[in-house]
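[audit] Reproducing an earlier prediction to check determinism. Same input, same settings, fresh worker. If the C-alpha cells differ from the archived copy the diff job will pick it up downstream; this log only records the rerun itself.
[audit] input (434 residues):
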Amino acid sequence: METLPDEVLEVVFSYCSVRDLVSSVQHVCWHWKRVVHTSRLWRDVIYRPDKVDTDSHIVSMLCGSAVLQAVDFSARIYGQMVFQALADNCPELKTLLVHVDQDINYDVLKAIHEKCTKIEQLSPPLSVVSSPEKCQIVGEFINLKILSLVAPLQYPCSILCLKDIADGCPQLQHLTLLFGGYFTNDLFYTMVKKKDHLHTIEVSCINFCGMCTLPLLSVCSSLKTLHMHNSCNSESHFKVNSLRKLRALTSLSWEGFHHEDQMLKIFDNKNLVQLLELTLISCNAYNDSVTEVIVQNCPLLQCITLELCSNFSDDSLRLFSSLAYLNTLRIYGNSHITDRGIMSLQQVDQLLCLSLGQCKNLTSASLEVVANLSKLHELRLMLQDLEGLPVDLLATHMKALKRLHIINCYNVDILALEWLKSKVPRIRLKLIFL
C-alpha cells in the first residue's frame, strides 16, 4: 500500500466513512495523512453524525477534518459548541445543512461567516432566517449559490427576513422557499433584486396569507428551473397565465395540478418551447388532451416524470413516445397503463433511462418489450410483478445496460438475477426489499 500512487489511494479512501478517515486512516502514516488531506477526496463526502454521537464526539471529529466540505446537521439539534468547532476547524466548508429548530447564536453564526468563507450551499434554521440581525449575516456570504428555506407549515408565526437576503448573497442562483411565513411583497422584492441571477426557484404556490405567488415569478424572465408545490387555490387558478412569461424555462416540476384548463394554458401556444424536463406529481387533472398539448408545444422534451397522475393512459404514453428527443421516462403509480402503452416504447430509439413503478396492470409482455430496449443505460423497476422477467434477453439484447435497480418488487427470481450479474459484470445490480 505504501507504494501506491496518490490517485489510487484516493479511490480506495473514497469508500471510507468520515469517521474512519479522521479517526483511523490519516493516522497510519504521513503518506496516507497527506492523501486524506487533499481536497479532491472530500468533494463528494458529506459528514452526517450518527444518532448516538454526542456533541463532544462530533467536536473531536471536526477538529481533525480541516478539509471537510459538506456537513448535514439536519437530522437533529446540536449544541453551540458543535457549530463553533465547525467554524474553527473547517475552512474548506462549502455545504451546511441545519435542522429547522436549531438555535445558532449571533456570535457563532458570525464566526462561521468569517472563517468558512467558501460556503456555497446553506439551509439555515428558523432562528437565523427569522432574525433581521442574523439574516444580514446570511446576506454577507458572498459565495452562496444555493439557499434553502424550508419549514413545516406549523410555523406561520415566524416571518422570514427575505429583504436582508435579497440585498446580499450576490451569487445566489438557486432559491428554495418551502415555508409559509413570508409576505408577498418581500418575495416580490427578492424576485426583482435577483431576477438576473436566479436560475432555479422551488416555492409553494400559496403563502401563509393565502396569497398566490405565481405572478411574482414572472419577474424572473431568465429562470431556467421551476419547482412548484401544493395545489393552486381559486385565485391562482386565474393567475396561472403569468407562467407564460417564463419562456426560458428548461425544467418544470409541479405538484398538485387540479384544473385541466390551468395545464392547457401553461403549455399552449409554444409558451414553454424550450422545456427539456417535465415532472408532474399528483395531478388529477392530467389527461390525454393535456398530453397532446404538451407534445405539440414542447418538442424538445428529453426527460418526463409522471407520478400518481391517475388519468395518465396508454394513449398519453403513445403520444410521448413520438417525441424526437425523449431519453428518460419515469412512470409511478399510474394504474391505467397497460401492455399496449408499454409497447409504444419500441419506437423510442433514443431512450436511455426507464423507471416503472406500481403500474399494476403490466404483465410479462411489458417486461419482454422493456428487455428489448437495446439502448437503455438504466432500468428501474419498483413495486412491480416480475414474474416472467426475461433475464436472458437482458443479458443478450440490452448491451448498453449499466444499472438495474429492483425495488420492493415481487415474484423476483434471485438466482436468475445472480446469473445475470455474473454473466454481464458491467451491470450494477441493486436489489432492495423493505
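[audit] rerun output stored. Observation attached for the diff report: The CA atoms of residues 4 and 10 lie 10 Å apart.
[audit] end
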